[in-house]
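1st attempt posting a full record on here, be nice pls
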Amino acid sequence: MEKIEKTSKIFVAGHRGMVGGAIVRKLKENGFTNIITKTHDELDITNQAAVNGFFEKEKPQFVFLAAAKVGGIYANNTYRYDFIYQNLMIAANVVEAARKFGVKKLLNLGSSCIYPKFAEQPITENSLLTGELEQTNEPYALAKIAAIKLCESANRQYNCDFISAMPTNLYGIGDNYHPENSHVLPALIRRFHEAKVANSNEVAVWGTGSPLREFLFADDVADACLFLIQNYSGDKHVNVGSGEEITIKALAETIKRIVGFQGNLTWDKSKPDGTPRKLMDSSFLRGLGWKPKVNFEEGIKIAYEDFLRRI
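the predicted structure (as tokens):
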């Protein structure tokens, strides 16, 4: 296992995203001084020639692959070709360039959507490829599975040290609060804030509020990524979760309180609940010695403060 040093040349792909930004912050907090980032205008990582040219010139020693085309259910289901093509190109280009130009270690960041729709709960790493995927985001999930297999195959054929981390539902600084394309936690922050500003009497939320979900603060994921690149080598992808579940009802009530909305919270039970439960089994990572640091309510307060700075 190659040791990452404070002066090691580190490329963070996707630094403008929520997780990529958190990884850059975490590296700087821990005294790493040689961090390379590129905007899309500076480097299109869906372009193989451009990626090869960048790696040949810059010669990064360590890579965090946090770049991806992401979106909510509507975007995933509508732009299916874009999601599979762009994410396949990102993974193939960066992993191949890392192999070709001698990167010492690469961490590939994935998503819990790689697992079958009806995987046994809590979801272990061994659930991969044991059943059908959720149809709405199948193209995205397939690209993320391909990225895992690229890393695994590079290790086996070329003796690389490429690892993959699969986080649960994330939230935090730099989240997406788009009214249609955001995930449930940032969407609720926005809705309760807008209702508070408008002095609305109520906010209606889809479903019954009974489904259970797991959330993890993005800076905790970044901390786990740094921990893994320092302490883990292997073909097996690693789940990264909090291990704690909360009902959508409790989540909505918590966000309502933190935002300071004084009206009523109602439930539109004519709308679907979605999957009843989705919990990652992160016991393998816990066994390596990592655990999350950010308290859930504290994380939501930080996320809300970030939302207020950005509106």
